[in-house]
Amino acid sequence: MAAPGSFSDDAPQAEIDYPKPDRLLAGNPKRTTWNRYERNGVFMGEWACEVGKWQIQFGSDEHEFFHVISGRCRVTDNDGLGKDFGPGDACMLQPGFAGSFEVLEAMLKRYVIIDRSP
Asked: Mean pLDDT of all residues in the chain?
């Protein structure tokens, strides 16, 4: 049996990326991910990001729960309905979600992603 994933363990090697140019809407934010757990389509970790905005599109079997530790973001669907999230707020993004993710203040979030794609 594998050890449980924990946010109190030493952070793993960070992965750094930027939004794909064809999805970028504002800025060019550096995104840093510390993926602490990965098994059978379940991922858990921490994610930090600079200010910016880009389009997002979830797969038909992909869920994401996140909890904002610091900073602020706005998630807006393709119909223009948006919601802001700040420290202590949490969100669940559903399979097939399409819209934009905007970091309003440099942020850190903790996430769990479940991808049940075949």
From this structure: 94
